[in-house]
Amino acid sequence: MNAQTAFMETDYTQHLVDSVESAADANKKAVTNTVLAPRFYTTDFDAMDKIDISSVRKEWDLMMEEYEGDNNHDHFQRDAEFAGEVHTLMSKLDEKLKQEFYDFLIGSLTSEFSGCILYNEVRKNISNPDIKKLMTFMARDESRHAGFLNQSLKDFNFGIDLGELKRTKKYTFFKPKFIFYATYLSEKIGYARYITIFRQLEKHPDKRFHPIFRWFERWCNDEFRHGESFALIMRADPKLLKGLNLWWIRFFVIAVYATMYVRDHTRPALHDAMGLKATEYDFEVFRITSEISKQVFPLIVDIDNPMFKVHLDHLTKLSFAMNAAKEKKGFLNLINKGWIGAQAFVTFFKLFFLPVIKSELPRQVRLAPTW
User: Fold this and answer.
1) pLDDT-derived band at 16, boundaries 50, 70, 90
2) How many CB atoms neighbour CB 3 within 10 A?
């Protein structure tokens, strides 16, 4: 173990998750925008209205049939054992793990609800029948996911006021192509995260400390299908996948991977409880997501490049340092925060310019969730 690795293994034992002691704390966490927190988005509705999917019509229509079939219409219902399992299992957990789990639930809910709001807003502001129909289906799915997560928070009296969250959380404007890149990655990485956790707990049911994990297999198939939708939209417009847009694709892949890596290393107890190590788990998720993304992106990040992990570890170290600096005041600490921020920018710059692996787009776009 080299010095850098030894430092990271030790430093990640710190606890960076803000404590949630009440519903007010949970709602405050959900509404706060940070570098690592899920955001709410809006976009150019006129541009969304002009999307033409005619070149992928056959695959598109088959996908619409799947949405209409709604094979998860009865999935997000709690069974008779759910409440009993919650209180029996959670009563055995230490406070650190509980707090990281609450943070996981709040972040997941905010992300799901973000999709619900965006898809609903697009649906209401366009007339394009293909996209309108798609947004209706995806908003339906995300609403179920958010509601299911919120019910688990309500078990601890930490329920989120979704109406208030919609009104008070700041919105970020993204051009449609940025929505496509970011949301495609978010949905696919969501699939990879959930299926990796499900497979782990399927092998080790004694480590399933909350019943919500039993729902992850069918749940993540919704995420997979949502990603397929954006893959078809992007493949229908070839200019989104070449030229200068390749740099935007690279940016969003790096940004999504780096955000996940840093965030997951603020929750060491959560991963340990499931028998996972955050670094190994994240690289498995990267591997699955990279393999899937070959369906639409002409390049993938070389996650096996040793410098990829080195830079991610450095970003994580800097995130820990910034978190500690925010607790202090004074002019010198202000300079220190600026220095940390500058180092983070340079590190991300280095990540961005690591060599990538080019790949040819397959003739058939659609994939099956077989991981």
Assistant:
1) low
2) 7
Q: Tell me the CA distances in angstroms from 283 to 227, 270, 288, 304, one per residue in order.
A: 20, 17, 9, 9
With beta carbons less than 8 A apart as the criterion, state whether 247 and 304 touch.
no
Alpha carbon distance 98, 23 (integer Å)? 15
Structural domains for the chain:
3-13+21-72+81-305 (1.10.620)
Residues 42, 120: Cα–Cα separation, whole Å: 10
Q: Please give the Cα distance from 187 to 290 (Å, whole number).
A: 13
- Conformational region of residue 143, where left means phi above 0, alpha means psi within -120 to 50, and beta covers everything else: alpha
Q: Which amino acid is at 133?
A: K
pLDDT at 17: 66
Cα 49 to chain centroid distance, Å, stands at 26
Cβ contact 139:119 at 8 Å: yes
Query: Structure pTM?
Result: 0.91
Which residue do the tokens 């788990």 mark? 281
Q: Give me 349's structure tokens.
A: 């710059």
> What is the DSSP code (8-state) at residue 73?
T
Burial profile 110-129: b = 16 or more Cβ within 10 angstroms, e = fewer: bbbbbbbbbbbbbbebbebe
Beta bridge partners of 322: none
Residue with tokens 């340079």: 346
Strand, coil or helix: what is 94?
A: coil
Taking a C-beta distance cutoff of 8 angstroms, is the pair 161, 30 a contact?
no
Count of beta carbons in the 10 Å neighbourhood of residue 264 = 22
Which string of DSSP letters, residue by residue, matches 195-217? HHHHHHHHH-GGG--SGGGGGHH
d(CA 16, CA 325): 12
Instruction: Using pLDDT thresholds of 50, 70 and 90, give the confidence band for residue 9.
Output: very low
